[in-house]
Design goal:
This protein has 136 residues and is mainly α. The chain has a domain at 47-133: Cytochrome Bc1 Complex, Chain D, domain 2 (Orthogonal Bundle). 46% of the residues lie in helices and 4% in strands. It has a two-stranded antiparallel ribbon with strand order 1-2. Helix 2 (47-54) crosses helix 5 and helix 4 crosses helix 5. The longest helix has 27 residues, at 9-35. Mean pLDDT is 80; it is low at 19-37.
Length: 136
């Protein structure tokens, strides 16, 4: 039985050497898509903005708060929000804080549940402050 084995290492190596660059390009494209649009400002990032970016919040809420898969943050603070149970709430600091800490507590109409996060109290407050700073 001196034939080729089922696992020809030369062929496997050749396939991987072709596949790795392709996977790298795909991964880079997906990472770019997840980051959303570029920021619309040259100003320095706030702490809350950086936390939102680092924790993937901007992938759904938009780099500039414009929304997308998740509700828009731009102009959200002190606005009326319609919830999936038919009720409405004012997006004040308490609502924003609760929504970040317990994403399924008050779900916005037309949007799915936000994933859980592990932000500490200071990080939650920084993100809330960032959302408050985003005007229409």
């Amino acid at each position: 039985m001196g034939g080729r084995s089922a696992c020809d290492h030369g062929t496997v190596k050749a396939r991987w050497s072709t596949l790795v660059p392709v996977l790298s390009v795909v991964a880079a494209a997906l990472a770019g898509a997840a980051c959303g649009a570029e920021r619309d400002s040259d100003r320095p990032m706030t702490q809350g903005e950086q936390i939102a970016l680092d924790n993937g919040c901007t992938a759904c809420h938009g780099t500039n708060g414009e929304g997308g898969v998740g509700p828009a943050w731009r102009g959200l603070y002190q606005s009326e929000v319609k919830l999936s149970d038919g009720s409405t709430v004012i997006a004040d600091e308490a609502y924003l804080t609760q929504s970040i800490r317990d994403p399924s507590a008050k779900q916005v109409t037309g949007f799915g549940a936000m994933p859980a996060n592990s932000l500490n109290d200071a990080e939650v407050q920084a993100v809330v402050d960032f959302i408050k700073s985003l005007e229409k």
